[in-house]
Amino acid sequence: MRTEAVDGGAAAVDSPPSSRTNPIGGVGFDGGGERPEGESEGNLEMATGLSENLKHPNMVWEVKTNQMPNAVQKLLFVVDKRTSGMSESLELLKCNENLPSSPGYASCDEHMELDDLPELQAVQTDSTPTALFQLGTDVSHQEYSGPSWNQHTSNNNSESAYSCENGVNWLTELANIATSPQSPLMQCSFYNRSSPVHIIATSKSLHSYARPPPGSSKSDSSFSKHHLDETPVRHERDYGSDGLKLISHEESISFGESVLKLTFDPGTVEDGLLTVECRLDHPFYVKNKGWSSFYPSLTVVQHGIPCCEMHIGDLCLPPGHPDAINFDDSGVFDTFKSYDFTPMDSSAVYVLSSMARQRRASLSCGGSGSQDFERSECSKNCVSDGSSQLSSSSLCSKAGKSHSSGTASTMSATSPNKCKRPMNAFMLFAKKYRVEYTQMYPGKDNRAISVILGDRWKKMKNEERRMYTLEAKALAEEQKRLNPDCWKRKRTNSYIV
DNA sequence: GTGAATGAAAC
DNA sequence: GTTTCATTCAC
C-alpha cells in the first residue's frame, strides 16, 4: 500500500491492486511467508515517521506481521500544502495516528459534547475496500463525489448540515471536514469504524493468522484472501468488546525515534496478544480514566489532549465503546479552557480550544476567566477524577492535589497566582520510575530511591534521555506561555497573602 | 518539614 | 556561582 499526495492539495490513500488493503482505513497487512517458529503472537507495528519538527510528523503507518517480519508496509500520510490556504491547519489531518483511541478520535467522541461539532451519527459499514481518500481545499467533504475514503459510511449522513458557505471560516471548515463522516477521524464507532482503529480492529484476523495454524501453515494468499473477503465488521464484531488490556510496555528506538512498544491482551484466548508500536505521546482511551498516555505532557502539547498517565493493566477502550461514553471526561475537555491558543497555533489544539471556548461561552458558567483561575479549574478537574490514581497531564498535574504540603500545592485557592514549575527531564524520569524502583527495592527509603534514580539517569544514553528532555522542553515552553513568571524565585512569604 | 536526586531559571 | 523548586514519600 502506498499513500501519496495528489494534485489539488489533496491527501490520498491509494490502494494499488496488488496490495492487501485493509478496507477499513487504508492500512493493509502483508501476510507473506512463514511465521517464524516460536512466535505465537500477532505483531502489528505502527510507527509514526517524524519529520524534523515533531509538531508536524508525517504519518507513517507501518505494518508488520509475524508471517513476514521483514515485509513492512509503510503508509505515509501526506498532505500537499501547495494549495494556498492549506495552512498548517490541515496538518492535523496527517498527525492523527488514528488508533482506536487516537487524537483524532478526540474530536469525534460523542461524550466530548462539543456543542459546535456536527452531530455524530452511527456509521454504517460495508465491505468495499477503500481506494482513495481525498480532501481538497475547494471541495468540502460533503461535496466530494469521488471514491470515498470511507465507504463504510452511511449514505444518509447529514452532509447538507455541514455545507460550506462562502466565507466560512477555514478552521470551521476544517473542523467540519475533520469531523465529517468521510473523515478518517470520524471512523469512531469502534465496531463500525475503519482506519486506525482498524489497526486493532482488524488485528483479529492478524492474530488468528499469527496463531499456530490449525493445520499446515497458511499461505500468503490465504491470508490475503481472508483479509479481503471478510468485512471489517466481521473482524470487529467480537473484538475488543471488553477493551484491550495493556500488559506490557517498553520503549525502544525505531527508525531513529523513540517509540513505545505496547502489548495488549484482547481478553480472548483465540486472539492472542497484540503488540503495537506507537509514538510516545500516543493517547489511548482508558476505562475509568479517560484519555491516557505514557507521556501526558507530550500528548497535551502534541495533540492538545490532556491525559492521565497510562499504566500496565489499563483497559483501553475505543471512544465509541459504551464504557467510554459513560465516562465523564468533561474535566479533561474543560482543560482546554486553560489554553489560550491562537490561529498561529494552527493545529487541532487550536480548533479544539476554540470549540472549548465557544462551549464555555455557551455554558456561561461564570466566574473568572483568567488563566490562573482556569488552571485551578483544570487542576480541580484532574483531581476530581477519582478513578485516576496518578497525575493527569503534567501541565495539569497534581498542583491541585492539595495535600497538606504547603509549598507544593501553592496553586490552591490560597495562592491562585502561583503556578508550579514544570518538571525537568530528570524529574519526569524520576516520577515515571520512582514507583517502579520503589517496588524493585522494597524497604528502601525514598531518598535512597532518589540516589538510585540519579545514578540510573547518569548512566542513561542521551537518546534515552531525549524523550524526557523533549517532554520537559515542551512542558517548559507551554508553561512559559501560560505562566511566564513560573520560575520566579520565591521571595519569603511575599506570595502568600 | 526534611531529604535525596537533576536541571532550569532566577538571582 | 548560588539558590530555588519542580516529584515522591518515609521519616
Q: Mind explaining what this structure looks like?
A:
The protein is of the alpha+beta class and about 500 residues long. Among the domains are: about 245-345, no CATH class; about 425-480, Orthogonal Bundle (DNA Binding (I), subunit A). Helices cover about 30% and strands about 15% of the residues. The strands form three sheets. Strands 3-8-7-6-12-9-10-11 form an eight-stranded mixed β-sheet. It has a two-stranded antiparallel ribbon with strand order 1-2. α8 links the parallel β10 (about 290-295) and β11. α13 crosses α14 and α13 packs across α15. The chain is globular, with a radius of gyration of 23 Å. It binds a DNA duplex (11 and 11 nucleotides) through α13 and α14. Its main location: nucleus. One of its GO terms (molecular function) is RNA polymerase II cis-regulatory region sequence-specific DNA binding. InterPro entries: Ataxin_AXH_dom, Ataxin_AXH_dom_sf, HBP1, HMG_box_dom, HMG_box_dom_sf. One of its GO terms (biological process) is Wnt signaling pathway.
* Biggest sheet statistics: 8 strands, mixed
Strand content: 5-15%
Please, what is the average pLDDT? 51
Helix and strand element order: EEEEEHHHHHHHEEEEEHEEHHHHHHH
Provide the gyration radius in Å.
23 Å
Draw up the topology in text.
Elements: E1 2-6, E2 10-14, E3 42-43, E4 59-65, E5 68-77, H1 92-95, H2 103-106, H3 170-179, H4 197-201, H5 203-210, H6 220-229, H7 232-237, E6 244-254, E7 257-265, E8 274-279, E9 284-286, E10 290-293, H8 296-302, E11 308-309, E12 315-317, H9 322-326, H10 330-334, H11 348-363, H12 371-384, H13 425-440, H14 446-459, H15 462-482
Parallel strand pairs: 3-8, 10-11
Antiparallel strand pairs: 1-2, 4-5, 6-7, 6-12, 7-8, 9-10, 9-12
Helix pairs in contact: 13-14, 13-15
The chain binds a DNA duplex (11 and 11 nucleotides) through helix 13 and helix 14.
